[in-house]
Amino acid sequence: MPRNREMVTTKLQRIAEKARRDRRCRFTSLFHLMNVEMLRECFDRLRKDAAAGIDKVTKEEYKENLEENLTVLVEKLHRMAYTPQPVRRVYIPKPGSNKKRPLGIPALEDKLVQAGLTRILTAIYEQDFIEDSYGFRPGRSCRDALRALSNEVEGQRIHHIVDADIKGFFDNVDHEWMMQFLGHRIADKRVLRYVKRFLKAGIIEDGAVSTSDKGTPQGGLVSPILANIYLHYSLDLWFTRVFQKSCNGQSRLIRYADDFVVCFQREGDASRFRHELDERLAKFGLEISPEKTKVIAFGPFAESRAKRGGGKTATFDFLGFTHYCSRSRNGRRFRMKRTTSRKKFTAKIRMFRDWLKANRTLPTRELMDRVASKLRGHFAYYGVTDNSRGISRFAYEIGRLLFKWLNRRGKRGCMNWEKFNLFLKKFPLPRPRIMVDLFA
Questions:
Q1: Taking the C-alpha atoms of 103, 109, 114 and 119 in order, what is their torsion angle to the nearest 10 degrees?
Q2: How many CB atoms are located within 10 Å of the residue 100 CB?
Q3: Which of 67, 257, 360, 372 has the smallest count of CB within 10 Å of its CB?
Q4: CA 345, CA 350: separation in Å to the nearest integer?
Q5: CA–CA separation, 258 vs 171, rounded Å?
Q6: What is the pLDDT of residues 75-112, one digit of tens each?
């Protein structure tokens, strides 16, 4: 490891150790870490194909005079002369609908500064975040959240689930509350001032700049850590230190970014949580989506009652999967199983269809390599315990789409299913298979 990188890493480790030892420590000297070495590392980590912001500067262009550019940037930062530019707003397809999701693209130097601030904030707050916060954290993933949920529900003591959805979370983060939360751990005024400048930088769309006293643009490198900090203080600590202690039975909150479910043993605790959640989040400018939030009976008791009544147990969606009550293969033990949610399945098929329609004229080898890559990516995420049927169905539908659009590259009807199967022998696609054992 190069010496400069080791120095940056070592300094961040020391900060992390101090934060871990003293949970009340407020750090007064952090901004000196925003030096050339730190920003050079942040530059190296930027994607080469990342879209340019309002400055229209790409990574390759900035690299031509990298050391000089970084030196000037650091000098401006420490004089407090650096002003973030508004993020360029673009719209990307929203899975499962014809709507589009707004995405903010920062200028290149803003990306570097945000990345540096993110590393500093992460070193501190990783010591504070609760164990069951999984989103955008080093060494944690969706799989860990799913695994934790499976272990909790199949422990036989969970009988109710609160499936909650925060309406427009990233658009409603209150800036003043955000700064108060940061102030619990950070007393370095320069760090705080630059975070606030990024929050206030605004958005440029169709040539017009708009600013607001709330929201953190999705796409900004610092947004994920800020989102976790905001929900840590507004939701996680309240649940673990206040609400959970008043429960009559077992309870557990499992959160991935702004997507979370809460497991309860007692129905009364679940109903009370749903009621108090509205009041708690409203204090911080957040609102629960009533139509997407529900309290359901779920678990071995719910399954038994449903069978006696001739009905089915309720299901809930979390991280792209529909979770449902079932049994082990021998029928003796309760199991919570999962399959790709209908909304996500439909959205993924639609996105693949649109991509294939736009790229059907690619050279055959390139087209098939990219199709194979997309399938491997889908299997890597959705290929988890119990979802064999979900990924097999996806592979089947992709095969049908591929047959349809390959048929349109030449004379209509030029390829029948026999020829298509021979074609797949020459250009084989990955087979659907379970990639992740959630009980390993």
A1: 130
A2: 11
A3: 67
A4: 9
A5: 12
A6: 999 999 999 999 998 887 765 566 777 788 999 999 99
Neighbour-count burial of 296, counting CB atoms closer than 10 A to its CB (0-12 exposed, 13-18 middle, 19+ buried) = middle
In Å, how far are 9, 235, 413 from 408, measured between CA atoms? 54, 52, 8
Helix (H) or strand (E) holding 247: none
What average pLDDT does the structure give for the chain?
Answer: 93
Partners of 388 in the beta sheet? none
Burial of 437 (0-12, 13-18, 19+ CB in 10 A): exposed
Residues for the chain: how many in total? 440
Burial classification of residue 404, based on how many CB atoms lie within 10 Å of its CB (0-12 exposed, 13-18 middle, 19 or more buried): middle
Who's near 41: CB < 8 A, 6+ residues apart? 5, 8
Residue 161 corresponds to which amino acid?
I
Give which of 236, 196, 13 is closest to 122, Cα–Cα: 13
Q: Is 294 helix (H, G, I), strand (E, B) or coil?
A: strand
| pLDDT value at residue 205 | 86
The per-residue pLDDT for range 271-283, each reduced to its tens digit, is: 999 999 999 999 9
The partner residues of 162 in beta bridges, in order of sequence, read: 262, 295
| SS3 category, 249 | coil
Instruction: Kindly report the pTM of this predicted structure.
Output: 0.92
Residue showing tokens 């030096």: 35
| CA-based nearest residue to 400, from 384, 380, 417, 385 | 417
Please calculate the CA angle 205-207-209 and round it to the nearest 5 degrees.
65
Three-state DSSP state, 107: coil
Residues 6+ apart with CB under 8 A from 419: none
Strand ranges, E, within 134-238: 160-165, 203-205, 208-210
Q: Which amino acid is at 376?
A: R
Nearest-CA neighbor of 259 among 156, 170, 176? 170
Q: What share of the chain is helix, strand, coil (3-state, %, to 5)?
A: 50, 15, 35
What span, in angstroms and rounded, lies between the C-alpha atoms of 173 and 179? 11
Contact 336, 326 (CB under 8 A): yes
What is the residue whose two structure tokens read 């070193």?
123
Identify residue 143 by its one-letter amino acid code: R
- Give residue-wise pLDDT tens across range 229-271: 999 999 999 999 999 999 999 999 999 999 999 999 999 999 9
